[in-house]
Amino acid sequence: MVKTRIGEVLAERGLSLYWLAKESGITYAALWNLKERRTDGITFTLLDAICKALDCQPGDILVRVEGEHPTLETRRKTRLGAKRSKKGK
Asked: Residue 19 pLDDT > 70, yes or no?
């Protein structure tokens, strides 16, 4: 799986996700989803904007790690199941 190192890079530089949102023109919500791996992909446009704001290369913020992660669809079903459980109480 490929994951982002956005949180780590920002922490190393003493920057916030809010700063990155302002500098890159990407919404805070979209960046948060990338940071928390709540999305299954990233466009080259977003990747370029992040790299430009951080003055880095894609390899500085993306890393491939062994192992599987749940697909976006699996995470959605899990969240829906949790919401239904709360309603049933």
From this structure: yes
